[in-house]
UniProtKB/TrEMBL annotation:
tRNA-binding among keywords: no
Domain Histone deacetylase intervals: 18-288
Gene3D superfamilies: Histone deacetylase domain
Family: Belongs to the histone deacetylase family.
GO molecular function annotations of the record: histone deacetylase activity; hydrolase activity
Protein name: Histone deacetylase
A Pfam family assignment: Hist_deacetyl
Keyword Hydrolase (UniProt): yes
Amino acid sequence: MLKIAWSKIYNHPLPEGHRFPMEKYDLLPEQLLYEGTISQANLFEPRKLTEAEILATHDADYWQRLKNLQLTRKEERRSGFPLSDLIVEREITINAGTIECAEFALQYGVAMNVAGGTHHAYTNRAEGFCFLNDIAIAANYLLNENKAQKILVVDLDVHQGNGTAQIFRNEPRVFTFSMHGAKNYPMHKEQSDLDIGLPDKTDDAEYLKILDFHLKHLLDIVKPDFIFFQSGVDVLATDKLGRLGMSIAGCKKRDQLVFEAAYKNEIPIVASMGGGYSEKIKDIIEAHANTYRVAQEIYF
């Protein structure tokens, strides 16, 4: 069964005019339920992270200041979100959801988080709508619990996974692969184990050719026993914060390549949704929904 982490707290209210589309976190499961791709049995309510799980990835001083709402105004602006008790609760719920998804993936082969993909969060700071790094926290959980020995992060958001790269720069058990817009945020890129910077307007054919080549190569040389997939749909040509030229169909094919590779090689995989900022909310929902449709088709 495809297990999906989702909570009402994912759709946290933001000030009017904020550019982050929080409503997608309610609209996406509603669409999947309406069309019959999933049922209520697929959804689970995540628990909350423990402090031990947070501190296995993030600095204690940073976590204490975040928890106590003591980030500076500059740090808060860098996060992109107004800091509050509710936003911190949202973060620890989303991040725990990715850990629980990892457990379900070990059982069923795949699991998915309606939110997450918070790859801009560093060990000691927030950035780009990310306070805590769910992929890093879940990867460290698996390593610390001896439930994985070699992890591959496949980050296909249009923005480089800079926080994830920083967190694992000295961790040989985690291989970070980020394929992103070369000229997009962040302007200063961290060094992943493999970075592929794509030129503006890269179309479906070129994108999929590059991804297919590198994904096959990485499975051969890294030999992962677990994959975290950051499946942001801000690669679309319609995205307000992206600069690539992909169609919704091309984005769906991207997801198919990743899930099929994991399935054929019997590697458990967790997908976190990542970014999506197209002008029309229906484009965001359709592209995200395709990720779930593809997973259901391949695995179940």
